[in-house]
Write a structure and sequence with these properties.
single chain; mainly beta; ubl conjugation pathway; SOCS box domain-containing protein
Length: 431
Protein backbone atom coordinates (compact mmCIF):
# COMPACT_ATOMS: atom_id res chain seq x y z
CA UNK A 1 0.00 0.00 0.00
CA UNK A 2 2.95 2.34 0.49
CA UNK A 3 6.52 2.39 -0.68
CA UNK A 4 9.17 3.01 1.96
CA UNK A 5 12.78 3.80 1.19
CA UNK A 6 15.75 5.19 3.07
CA UNK A 7 17.69 7.60 0.82
CA UNK A 8 21.29 8.59 1.19
CA UNK A 9 21.56 11.94 2.95
CA UNK A 10 24.77 13.72 1.94
CA UNK A 11 26.20 16.35 4.26
CA UNK A 12 27.46 19.59 2.80
CA UNK A 13 30.69 20.46 4.60
CA UNK A 14 30.30 24.10 3.63
CA UNK A 15 27.14 24.70 5.61
CA UNK A 16 28.76 25.13 9.03
CA UNK A 17 27.06 22.09 10.55
CA UNK A 18 23.71 22.63 8.81
CA UNK A 19 22.74 19.49 6.89
CA UNK A 20 19.71 17.92 5.33
CA UNK A 21 18.56 15.34 7.87
CA UNK A 22 16.15 13.31 5.75
CA UNK A 23 16.10 9.79 7.18
CA UNK A 24 13.03 8.13 5.65
CA UNK A 25 10.30 8.82 3.15
CA UNK A 26 6.90 7.37 2.23
CA UNK A 27 5.56 7.43 -1.30
CA UNK A 28 1.78 7.43 -1.93
CA UNK A 29 -0.15 4.73 -3.75
CA UNK A 30 -1.24 7.13 -6.48
CA UNK A 31 1.46 9.30 -8.08
CA UNK A 32 0.79 12.92 -8.95
CA UNK A 33 -1.15 13.29 -12.19
CA UNK A 34 0.60 14.59 -15.28
CA UNK A 35 -1.91 17.43 -15.51
CA UNK A 36 -1.08 18.48 -11.96
CA UNK A 37 -4.70 18.40 -10.81
CA UNK A 38 -5.48 18.57 -7.10
CA UNK A 39 -6.17 15.56 -4.90
CA UNK A 40 -2.78 14.00 -4.20
CA UNK A 41 -1.61 16.52 -1.57
CA UNK A 42 -0.64 15.51 1.96
CA UNK A 43 -2.25 18.37 3.86
CA UNK A 44 -1.68 16.92 7.31
CA UNK A 45 0.28 14.32 9.26
CA UNK A 46 0.19 13.42 12.95
CA UNK A 47 1.81 11.17 15.55
CA UNK A 48 -0.26 9.47 18.24
CA UNK A 49 0.09 10.98 21.76
CA UNK A 50 2.58 8.30 22.85
CA UNK A 51 4.39 8.29 19.52
CA UNK A 52 3.82 4.63 18.60
CA UNK A 53 1.63 5.40 15.54
CA UNK A 54 1.86 7.75 12.57
CA UNK A 55 -1.12 8.93 10.50
CA UNK A 56 -0.55 10.14 6.96
CA UNK A 57 -3.10 11.70 4.61
CA UNK A 58 -1.70 10.26 1.40
CA UNK A 59 -4.08 11.96 -1.03
CA UNK A 60 -7.29 11.01 -2.86
CA UNK A 61 -9.26 10.52 0.35
CA UNK A 62 -6.98 7.82 1.81
CA UNK A 63 -5.39 7.94 5.26
CA UNK A 64 -2.70 5.45 6.22
CA UNK A 65 -1.96 4.63 9.87
CA UNK A 66 1.43 3.00 10.45
CA UNK A 67 3.40 1.77 13.45
CA UNK A 68 6.33 3.96 14.45
CA UNK A 69 9.25 3.42 13.96
CA UNK A 70 8.38 2.46 10.39
CA UNK A 71 8.81 -1.13 9.17
CA UNK A 72 12.29 -1.73 7.78
CA UNK A 73 12.82 -3.26 4.34
CA UNK A 74 16.60 -3.60 4.53
CA UNK A 75 16.74 -6.30 7.18
CA UNK A 76 17.84 -4.04 9.99
CA UNK A 77 14.91 -5.18 12.12
CA UNK A 78 15.58 -8.90 12.64
CA UNK A 79 12.77 -9.39 15.14
CA UNK A 80 10.09 -11.18 13.11
CA UNK A 81 7.50 -10.79 15.88
CA UNK A 82 8.11 -7.05 15.94
CA UNK A 83 7.68 -6.87 12.16
CA UNK A 84 4.42 -8.82 12.31
CA UNK A 85 3.14 -6.62 15.13
CA UNK A 86 3.89 -3.48 13.13
CA UNK A 87 2.21 -4.92 10.04
CA UNK A 88 -0.88 -5.88 12.03
CA UNK A 89 -1.22 -2.33 13.38
CA UNK A 90 -1.39 -0.82 9.88
CA UNK A 91 -4.74 0.67 8.90
CA UNK A 92 -5.97 2.07 5.58
CA UNK A 93 -8.91 4.45 6.03
CA UNK A 94 -10.92 5.34 2.94
CA UNK A 95 -12.62 8.64 3.67
CA UNK A 96 -14.22 9.17 0.25
CA UNK A 97 -13.28 12.86 0.23
CA UNK A 98 -10.06 14.86 0.22
CA UNK A 99 -8.65 14.85 3.76
CA UNK A 100 -7.55 18.31 4.91
CA UNK A 101 -7.06 17.72 8.63
CA UNK A 102 -6.53 14.79 10.99
CA UNK A 103 -5.76 14.34 14.67
CA UNK A 104 -5.29 11.52 17.18
CA UNK A 105 -7.16 11.67 20.45
CA UNK A 106 -7.61 11.79 23.32
CA UNK A 107 -4.31 13.46 24.26
CA UNK A 108 -3.29 13.06 27.92
CA UNK A 109 -2.04 15.94 30.01
CA UNK A 110 1.75 16.26 29.87
CA UNK A 111 3.89 18.73 31.76
CA UNK A 112 6.90 20.38 30.06
CA UNK A 113 10.22 18.80 30.91
CA UNK A 114 8.89 15.22 30.74
CA UNK A 115 10.69 14.70 27.44
CA UNK A 116 12.95 11.77 26.63
CA UNK A 117 14.64 11.78 23.22
CA UNK A 118 14.51 8.63 21.12
CA UNK A 119 17.94 7.06 21.14
CA UNK A 120 17.45 3.34 20.51
CA UNK A 121 14.64 3.35 17.93
CA UNK A 122 12.34 1.17 20.03
CA UNK A 123 8.61 1.84 19.70
CA UNK A 124 6.86 3.47 22.62
CA UNK A 125 3.95 1.80 24.39
CA UNK A 126 0.47 3.27 24.62
CA UNK A 127 -3.06 1.94 24.79
CA UNK A 128 -4.01 1.83 21.11
CA UNK A 129 -7.45 0.45 22.01
CA UNK A 130 -8.36 3.84 23.48
CA UNK A 131 -7.23 5.88 20.47
CA UNK A 132 -9.49 7.45 17.88
CA UNK A 133 -8.62 9.42 14.77
CA UNK A 134 -10.60 12.41 13.52
CA UNK A 135 -10.42 13.29 9.82
CA UNK A 136 -11.67 16.59 8.39
CA UNK A 137 -13.02 16.30 4.87
CA UNK A 138 -13.56 18.48 1.83
CA UNK A 139 -17.37 18.35 2.20
CA UNK A 140 -17.36 19.71 5.76
CA UNK A 141 -17.87 16.34 7.48
CA UNK A 142 -15.60 15.08 10.27
CA UNK A 143 -15.25 11.29 10.35
CA UNK A 144 -14.27 9.58 13.63
CA UNK A 145 -12.37 6.27 13.38
CA UNK A 146 -11.45 3.60 15.95
CA UNK A 147 -7.73 2.95 15.43
CA UNK A 148 -7.60 -0.57 16.89
CA UNK A 149 -10.03 -1.90 14.25
CA UNK A 150 -10.01 0.71 11.47
CA UNK A 151 -13.77 1.06 11.91
CA UNK A 152 -15.61 4.30 11.07
CA UNK A 153 -17.57 5.13 14.23
CA UNK A 154 -19.66 8.16 13.24
CA UNK A 155 -19.72 11.46 11.35
CA UNK A 156 -19.81 14.96 12.81
CA UNK A 157 -21.93 17.28 10.67
CA UNK A 158 -22.29 21.03 10.94
CA UNK A 159 -19.49 22.69 9.02
CA UNK A 160 -20.55 24.07 5.64
CA UNK A 161 -17.15 23.89 3.95
CA UNK A 162 -13.69 22.30 4.12
CA UNK A 163 -12.59 21.24 7.62
CA UNK A 164 -9.00 22.47 7.60
CA UNK A 165 -7.91 21.96 11.23
CA UNK A 166 -8.59 19.42 13.98
CA UNK A 167 -7.15 19.54 17.51
CA UNK A 168 -7.73 17.45 20.64
CA UNK A 169 -6.93 19.49 23.80
CA UNK A 170 -4.10 17.99 25.87
CA UNK A 171 -6.30 17.29 28.89
CA UNK A 172 -7.29 13.67 28.24
CA UNK A 173 -10.91 14.48 27.35
CA UNK A 174 -12.87 13.55 24.24
CA UNK A 175 -13.21 17.18 23.20
CA UNK A 176 -12.44 18.09 19.59
CA UNK A 177 -11.80 21.58 18.20
CA UNK A 178 -12.31 22.05 14.45
CA UNK A 179 -11.64 24.97 12.12
CA UNK A 180 -13.28 25.34 8.73
CA UNK A 181 -13.46 27.44 5.60
CA UNK A 182 -16.99 28.35 6.66
CA UNK A 183 -15.26 30.93 8.95
CA UNK A 184 -16.17 29.16 12.20
CA UNK A 185 -14.59 27.09 14.94
CA UNK A 186 -16.59 24.28 16.50
CA UNK A 187 -15.96 22.57 19.84
CA UNK A 188 -17.38 19.04 19.88
CA UNK A 189 -18.15 16.95 22.95
CA UNK A 190 -17.63 13.40 21.68
CA UNK A 191 -18.95 11.85 24.90
CA UNK A 192 -22.46 13.25 24.47
CA UNK A 193 -25.15 11.24 22.75
CA UNK A 194 -26.03 13.94 20.24
CA UNK A 195 -22.43 14.99 19.55
CA UNK A 196 -23.27 18.52 20.64
CA UNK A 197 -20.96 21.37 19.74
CA UNK A 198 -20.33 25.04 20.50
CA UNK A 199 -19.84 27.35 17.51
CA UNK A 200 -17.29 30.19 17.68
CA UNK A 201 -17.90 32.73 14.92
CA UNK A 202 -16.44 36.12 14.04
CA UNK A 203 -13.59 35.30 11.65
CA UNK A 204 -13.37 37.42 8.51
CA UNK A 205 -12.19 34.58 6.28
CA UNK A 206 -11.35 30.89 6.11
CA UNK A 207 -9.95 29.45 9.34
CA UNK A 208 -6.45 28.33 8.34
CA UNK A 209 -5.09 27.16 11.68
CA UNK A 210 -6.17 26.69 15.31
CA UNK A 211 -4.21 25.53 18.34
CA UNK A 212 -5.08 24.79 21.97
CA UNK A 213 -2.86 26.02 24.81
CA UNK A 214 -1.06 23.31 26.86
CA UNK A 215 -3.28 23.99 29.89
CA UNK A 216 -6.38 23.66 27.66
CA UNK A 217 -7.66 27.09 28.63
CA UNK A 218 -7.25 28.98 25.33
CA UNK A 219 -7.72 28.48 21.60
CA UNK A 220 -5.66 30.53 19.14
CA UNK A 221 -6.90 30.76 15.57
CA UNK A 222 -5.89 32.57 12.39
CA UNK A 223 -7.82 33.07 9.17
CA UNK A 224 -7.37 34.36 5.66
CA UNK A 225 -8.19 38.01 4.88
CA UNK A 226 -7.19 39.10 8.38
CA UNK A 227 -4.02 40.33 10.08
CA UNK A 228 -5.14 39.40 13.59
CA UNK A 229 -4.86 36.34 15.78
CA UNK A 230 -8.04 35.46 17.67
CA UNK A 231 -7.87 34.08 21.22
CA UNK A 232 -10.88 32.19 22.60
CA UNK A 233 -11.67 30.70 26.00
CA UNK A 234 -12.06 26.93 25.88
CA UNK A 235 -13.69 27.04 29.32
CA UNK A 236 -16.47 29.53 28.59
CA UNK A 237 -16.54 29.21 24.76
CA UNK A 238 -16.25 32.98 24.37
CA UNK A 239 -13.97 35.40 22.52
CA UNK A 240 -11.13 36.83 24.62
CA UNK A 241 -9.00 39.22 22.53
CA UNK A 242 -7.08 39.84 19.33
CA UNK A 243 -3.34 39.99 18.76
CA UNK A 244 -3.11 42.66 16.06
CA UNK A 245 -0.23 43.42 13.69
CA UNK A 246 0.86 47.01 13.03
CA UNK A 247 1.05 46.51 9.28
CA UNK A 248 -0.87 44.48 6.76
CA UNK A 249 0.28 40.85 6.84
CA UNK A 250 -1.16 37.56 5.70
CA UNK A 251 -1.15 35.23 8.73
CA UNK A 252 -0.94 31.53 7.95
CA UNK A 253 -0.14 29.57 11.11
CA UNK A 254 0.32 29.65 14.88
CA UNK A 255 1.44 27.39 17.71
CA UNK A 256 1.78 27.54 21.51
CA UNK A 257 5.07 26.74 23.20
CA UNK A 258 4.86 23.60 25.40
CA UNK A 259 4.63 25.73 28.54
CA UNK A 260 1.94 28.00 27.04
CA UNK A 261 3.92 31.19 27.74
CA UNK A 262 4.63 31.98 24.07
CA UNK A 263 2.46 31.95 20.95
CA UNK A 264 4.38 31.80 17.65
CA UNK A 265 2.61 33.33 14.64
CA UNK A 266 3.78 32.91 11.04
CA UNK A 267 2.98 35.60 8.49
CA UNK A 268 4.19 37.08 5.21
CA UNK A 269 3.87 40.36 3.36
CA UNK A 270 2.26 40.93 -0.04
CA UNK A 271 5.20 43.14 -1.11
CA UNK A 272 7.57 41.55 -3.60
CA UNK A 273 10.68 42.54 -1.67
CA UNK A 274 9.52 41.20 1.68
CA UNK A 275 9.75 37.66 3.01
CA UNK A 276 8.13 35.69 5.77
CA UNK A 277 8.05 36.65 9.43
CA UNK A 278 7.53 34.82 12.73
CA UNK A 279 6.31 36.78 15.74
CA UNK A 280 6.49 35.44 19.28
CA UNK A 281 3.67 36.84 21.43
CA UNK A 282 2.78 36.66 25.09
CA UNK A 283 -0.81 35.34 24.90
CA UNK A 284 -1.62 36.68 28.39
CA UNK A 285 -0.56 40.30 27.91
CA UNK A 286 -0.78 40.54 24.08
CA UNK A 287 2.83 41.82 24.08
CA UNK A 288 5.02 41.19 21.04
CA UNK A 289 8.18 39.58 22.43
CA UNK A 290 10.29 38.69 19.37
CA UNK A 291 10.07 39.40 15.64
CA UNK A 292 12.00 36.83 13.57
CA UNK A 293 12.58 37.94 9.96
CA UNK A 294 13.54 36.14 6.76
CA UNK A 295 17.07 36.49 5.39
CA UNK A 296 17.23 39.95 3.80
CA UNK A 297 20.53 39.10 2.07
CA UNK A 298 18.64 36.95 -0.43
CA UNK A 299 17.54 38.50 -3.69
CA UNK A 300 13.78 39.27 -3.85
CA UNK A 301 13.12 36.70 -6.58
CA UNK A 302 14.52 33.84 -4.48
CA UNK A 303 13.30 35.14 -1.15
CA UNK A 304 10.90 32.73 0.57
CA UNK A 305 7.78 34.86 0.69
CA UNK A 306 5.20 32.48 2.05
CA UNK A 307 5.31 30.56 5.31
CA UNK A 308 3.07 27.50 5.25
CA UNK A 309 3.11 26.34 8.84
CA UNK A 310 5.17 26.21 12.02
CA UNK A 311 5.33 24.17 15.22
CA UNK A 312 7.29 24.04 18.47
CA UNK A 313 9.38 21.04 19.48
CA UNK A 314 8.15 19.14 22.57
CA UNK A 315 10.87 20.70 24.73
CA UNK A 316 10.15 24.22 23.45
CA UNK A 317 13.71 24.90 22.29
CA UNK A 318 13.13 24.55 18.55
CA UNK A 319 10.66 26.06 16.11
CA UNK A 320 10.12 24.21 12.82
CA UNK A 321 9.07 26.32 9.82
CA UNK A 322 7.78 25.25 6.41
CA UNK A 323 8.30 28.01 3.84
CA UNK A 324 7.87 28.22 0.08
CA UNK A 325 10.87 27.14 -2.00
CA UNK A 326 12.97 26.48 1.10
CA UNK A 327 11.06 23.51 2.52
CA UNK A 328 11.88 22.85 6.17
CA UNK A 329 13.87 25.09 8.50
CA UNK A 330 14.63 24.48 12.16
CA UNK A 331 15.33 27.49 14.38
CA UNK A 332 16.65 27.44 17.93
CA UNK A 333 15.21 30.28 20.00
CA UNK A 334 17.60 33.20 20.23
CA UNK A 335 19.90 32.14 17.37
CA UNK A 336 20.54 33.90 14.03
CA UNK A 337 21.25 30.85 11.88
CA UNK A 338 19.11 27.77 11.42
CA UNK A 339 19.94 24.48 13.09
CA UNK A 340 18.70 22.70 9.96
CA UNK A 341 17.76 23.92 6.50
CA UNK A 342 16.79 21.57 3.68
CA UNK A 343 18.39 21.86 0.27
CA UNK A 344 16.78 24.53 -1.90
CA UNK A 345 17.45 22.63 -5.14
CA UNK A 346 16.39 19.17 -3.98
CA UNK A 347 13.58 19.28 -1.41
CA UNK A 348 10.52 21.47 -1.73
CA UNK A 349 6.70 21.51 -1.75
CA UNK A 350 6.28 20.76 1.96
CA UNK A 351 2.79 21.67 3.22
CA UNK A 352 2.73 20.62 6.89
CA UNK A 353 5.01 19.51 9.70
CA UNK A 354 4.83 18.02 13.19
CA UNK A 355 7.31 16.79 15.81
CA UNK A 356 7.33 13.31 17.26
CA UNK A 357 6.01 13.71 20.85
CA UNK A 358 9.35 12.50 22.26
CA UNK A 359 11.35 14.85 20.02
CA UNK A 360 14.18 14.05 17.64
CA UNK A 361 12.06 13.52 14.50
CA UNK A 362 10.03 15.95 12.36
CA UNK A 363 7.45 14.61 9.91
CA UNK A 364 6.38 16.67 6.88
CA UNK A 365 3.75 16.20 4.18
CA UNK A 366 4.27 17.36 0.60
CA UNK A 367 2.21 18.62 -2.31
CA UNK A 368 2.83 15.41 -4.26
CA UNK A 369 1.56 13.16 -1.45
CA UNK A 370 4.84 12.12 0.16
CA UNK A 371 5.56 11.94 3.89
CA UNK A 372 9.14 12.71 4.90
CA UNK A 373 10.93 12.22 8.21
CA UNK A 374 13.78 14.49 9.25
CA UNK A 375 16.18 14.07 12.13
CA UNK A 376 16.48 17.09 14.40
CA UNK A 377 19.78 17.64 16.16
CA UNK A 378 19.34 16.55 19.79
CA UNK A 379 19.80 19.23 22.40
CA UNK A 380 19.86 18.88 26.17
CA UNK A 381 17.61 21.48 27.82
CA UNK A 382 19.31 23.52 30.50
CA UNK A 383 18.13 23.28 34.08
CA UNK A 384 17.01 26.93 33.96
CA UNK A 385 14.87 26.24 30.87
CA UNK A 386 13.27 23.19 32.48
CA UNK A 387 12.48 25.19 35.62
CA UNK A 388 10.97 28.01 33.56
CA UNK A 389 8.86 25.60 31.52
CA UNK A 390 7.55 23.81 34.63
CA UNK A 391 6.70 27.12 36.33
CA UNK A 392 5.10 28.80 33.32
CA UNK A 393 2.91 25.79 32.62
CA UNK A 394 0.75 26.70 35.61
CA UNK A 395 1.54 30.37 36.24
CA UNK A 396 0.40 33.23 34.00
CA UNK A 397 2.46 36.27 33.02
CA UNK A 398 0.33 38.48 35.28
CA UNK A 399 1.14 36.25 38.25
CA UNK A 400 4.85 36.22 37.37
CA UNK A 401 4.93 40.03 37.14
CA UNK A 402 3.51 40.27 40.67
CA UNK A 403 6.31 38.20 42.20
CA UNK A 404 8.99 40.07 44.24
CA UNK A 405 11.92 38.67 42.24
CA UNK A 406 14.99 40.25 40.57
CA UNK A 407 14.43 41.99 37.24
CA UNK A 408 16.71 39.62 35.27
CA UNK A 409 14.85 36.59 36.58
CA UNK A 410 11.55 38.23 35.71
CA UNK A 411 12.78 38.89 32.15
CA UNK A 412 13.86 35.27 31.78
CA UNK A 413 10.62 33.79 33.10
CA UNK A 414 8.54 35.94 30.71
CA UNK A 415 10.81 35.35 27.68
CA UNK A 416 11.63 39.06 27.50
CA UNK A 417 15.35 38.31 27.61
CA UNK A 418 15.35 37.27 23.92
CA UNK A 419 16.43 39.86 21.28
CA UNK A 420 13.37 41.86 20.23
CA UNK A 421 14.19 41.75 16.52
CA UNK A 422 16.13 38.93 14.90
CA UNK A 423 17.12 38.67 11.26
CA UNK A 424 17.95 35.12 10.29
CA UNK A 425 20.49 34.04 7.71
CA UNK A 426 20.01 31.21 5.25
CA UNK A 427 22.78 28.70 4.53
CA UNK A 428 24.05 30.81 1.62
CA UNK A 429 24.56 33.83 3.89
CA UNK A 430 25.57 32.22 7.18
CA UNK A 431 27.71 34.53 9.33
Amino acid sequence: MCDLFVPDCPIDNNTKGISDGLVEQLRPIHPQTVRGTAGCETWTVDFSPGGSLFAWSMGYGVVKVLAWPLPNEEGRDNDLDAQLTKKASERTLNCGQTVWGLAFGPRPRKRPGAISHITDGRPLTEDVKMLILATGLNNGIIKIWRISTGEALYDLKGHQSVVRELVFPPNGTLTLVSGSRDKTLRIWDLTSTGRTCHVLSGHRGWVLCCRVSPDSSMIASVCSSDNRVSLWSLRSYTFMKHLAFNKRSAISSCDFSPDGAVLAVGSYSSHNSAGWRVDLWDPYTAELLVMLEDCCSCEPFINSKTIKTLCFSPDGLYLALVVDHRALRLWELGQKTFVMETDLTTFHNELCCTFHPQGGIIATGTRDGHAKFWKARPIVPSLTHLCRAALRFSVSTHQINALPIPHKLLEFLTYRDLPKTQETYCRAHCR
